[in-house]
Sequence to fold (369 residues):
Amino acid sequence: MIPILELRTQYSQIQEELEEAVLRVLRSTSYILGSEVKSFEEEFAAWNGVKYGIGVGNGTDAIQLAVRALELAPEDEVIVPSFTFVASAGAVALAGSKVVFADVDPVTFTLDPDSLEKAITPRTKAVVAVHLYGHAADMDRIAAICREHKLFLIEDCAQASGAQIGEKKVGGFGDMSCYSFFPSKNLGGIGDGGIVLTNNEKYDESIRMLRGHGSKVRYYHEILGTNSRLDEIQAAALRVKLKHVDEWNTKRRAVAQAYGEALKGTPVTIPTEREGFRHVFHQYTIRTPKRDQLFEYMRANGVGPAIYYPVCLHLQKTFANSGFKKGDLPVCEQLQEEVMSLPMFPELAHEQVMTVANVIKGFFNEKGE
Ligand SMILES: *Cc1c(COP(=O)(O)O)cnc(C)c1O
Fold:
């Protein structure tokens, strides 16, 4: 089976460096907020061209703490695209704000600025823009809308470490940006991890307090914080991986290019990269109205694709009280029926890409298309 993701090859390539880093932490006996976290925060922020980085427990906490740092009132609304991983919206709700869903662009799968504008009410205070599958959202327009309506802007960069618009990496277009280092992300740790980036000193201070029981000085608690820290072992591993991620992203782009060429002439819609954007292909996601049949056919023929995501968020039971119903966000609803992500990781061999493409071609040949 050609899997959607395989981490073993990458591990074997960096095994020595990685194990050395982990051992270094183990032997240091400094396990919480030590020098590895501090160094990684600085290195990752610098790599993104952003001033401050605050390591947290995971990507969900990164978003939750970012929203909490805005100090919104419970009735305040935060606009989130409905076609994304649950945490983009769940974290907003956990932070105590009201989630309002918007539709996405059918080509880039990211927040549609027109739908965003329509969703704005006098209670709207913030927007979460998600750079889904590794392609940046339309930040020029989204940031302009946020400026015009005085809304805070948070970027969900969990799937987009290293993605760019022009020469600028994502993560510096809004007030704060949030990353996940879950092992399957294109920059992934060896367990859970996350970070918030910001250029604003005030948010840097707030997130640092929020992640550590609400205190600046130990045992003096100014606000209600939580316990959500990036741990030393994760930070040490991520420092190793950060040195390789540019090269891995370049390899992902080459895999995507090969898929694109191999799938030419088939009826599937392949992902596109907007002009001037740098897609990092966290996922390579195609579209076809025959998705469910193709999915079964591929599984029966040695390929393990995945469906991200089969149910958009405004139709999830957990958001049943959001006031949305079927038919409200037509692009999201169509995507949930048509998207399918193909095996994608930097080490995916050219023959494997060809095998996947040939299975897809076989399916449509059998159908006479
Ligand atoms: C993975 C992911 C998250 C959550 O990150 P965790 O580290 O798993 O909590 C949030 N948003 C998006 C778009 C993600 O893909």
